[in-house]
Design brief:
By secondary structure, this protein is of the alpha/beta class. The protein contains five helices and five strands. Strand 2 (44-47), helix 3 and strand 3 form a beta-alpha-beta unit.
Length: 126
């Protein structure tokens, strides 16, 4: 009987741990981003770097800049976006965009996150 209880507790712990690790957005590669950019009107492309980073260099198509450091404390910055159109989010290396992706998902958006950000991007920049 004690073995069954221990096995049940282990299984319950495993299920809770795995469910806590789930995320509400999809990571995408450079190749997937290229396909999405080819269907530009089907997505909202959001750069969550600072405005200085954004104006210094960006991936063509990412024309909207919402600074993650401001967004983190002010989710109302998303009020002007259309929740019926999926968002593609990028940052410098992929860290801020993960945090921003969680915020966008909490606010009801379908979210795609560019893994490794602009640093991992192998396409053109402007």
């Amino acid at each position: 009987m004690m073995k069954k209880i221990i096995m049940l507790l282990i299984a319950l712990t495993l299920v809770l741990t795995l469910s806590a690790c789930s995320k509400d957005f999809t990571d995408i590669s450079n190749e997937e981003l290229v396909e999405m950019l080819d269907n530009y009107d089907d997505y909202q492309f959001i750069d969550v770097r600072t405005s200085e980073e954004f104006y210094n260099e960006k991936i063509p198509g990412f024309n909207t800049n919402i600074d993650y450091y401001i967004l983190d404390n002010n989710h109302s910055l998303l009020d002007g976006l259309d929740k019926s159109i999926p968002v593609v989010i990028m940052c410098n290396s992929g860290n801020r965009s993960v945090d921003a992706s969680n915020i966008f998902a909490e606010e009801g958006f379908e979210v795609y996150n560019l893994e490794d950000g602009i640093e991992g991007w192998d396409g053109t920049t402007e």
